[in-house]
Amino acid sequence: MDAIRVGALLDDKKFDLRLSLIAGRQGLSRRISSSRIQKPGLVLAGFMEYLHQERLQVFGNTEVSYLRTMPRERAVEVLRAFFAQGIACLVVTKGLEPTPELVAAAEEAGVPLLRTTHLSSTFIESVQNCLEEILTASTSMHGVLLDVFGVGILLLGKSGIGKSEIALDLIMRGHRLVADDIVDVKRRTPDSVYGSGSEIIKHHMEIRGLGIINIKDLFGVASIRERKKIEIVLELVEWDPSVEYDRLGLEEKKFRILDVEVPLLMVPVRPGRNMTTIVEVAARNHLLKLQGHHSAKEFQERLNRAIALAPGGSAGGMDVE
Fold first, then answer.
1. Is 247 a catalytic residue?
2. Fold identical between 4-135 and 138-290?
3. What CATH number does domain 4-135 carry, 3.30.450.20, 3.60.20.10, 3.40.1390.20, 3.10.105.10?
4. 187 catalytic per annotation
5. Residue 163 known to be catalytic
6. Most buried one in 2, 44, 77, 293, CB count within 10 A?
7. Among this protein's residues, is 273 annotated catalytic?
8. pLDDT, tens digit, 9 for 90 and up, residues 178-187
9. Is 164 annotated as a binding residue?
10. What sections of 215-274 are H helices per DSSP?
11. What is the DSSP string of 164-176?
């Protein structure tokens, strides 16, 4: 989502913003396009060079108190210039009573003037969290997201390949479910994406032959997580004898989610393979890589050294295919 209406903040229940409208009702359709908040104290001195449009502005006790000391004509002049800059809205914190000039200027410009009972620091933190959740890029994916040894693993694969059954086995081993079937994904930072369960089917799984089961009720709150960073995408594919699968682990494939590249593992499925153990080992191996240990590369280096030192071996070593 690129922007939200100012009016949507008045309807918020999740982040306890405690907002009420004082003036500028006609401007509730104005857009907020940034999660960053501005506390523009210097505008009251007439300095408006770095005032950002479509950003929520905050006046606290300092700004309101300073306004009360200004001559009325000067206050009207400064406030009219302030509201003419295209700001999204202005929030007065600490339950303070806005000056008559502030209310009149907001109403005249059609810019929403809101008030909250929170302190400035508390409100800024809450509203920033609210805007970050709403404004971040998001999508939905068909798969299963799990927390395995603290690693977020997204299982992908065509319907019926066994994603939910593998997830259920992992949960019974003490790992945690984040989402089954529909995974809501949001980009939190430029290089990380987080997944969570859909509100409608959160904590539930579909197991063919059993139907819908509630993981939280069956296994307790320790068996679930509300959200998790996606660190590995593990795609389950049907075993094809004609395909040459990666046997050394040297290939480093990537899966792009919301323009973020996540390590991709393609794992063939066939009867007799213990997929639960393979997923656990994938998580452990990822943790080793984060600590600087890449088993496949270390093995290749040892093999190349052994070949180079062997009688008749090449001094430059060789690559393992």
1. yes
2. no
3. 3.40.1390.20
4. no
5. yes
6. 44
7. no
8. 999 999 998 8
9. yes
10. 215-219
11. HHHHHHHHHTT-E
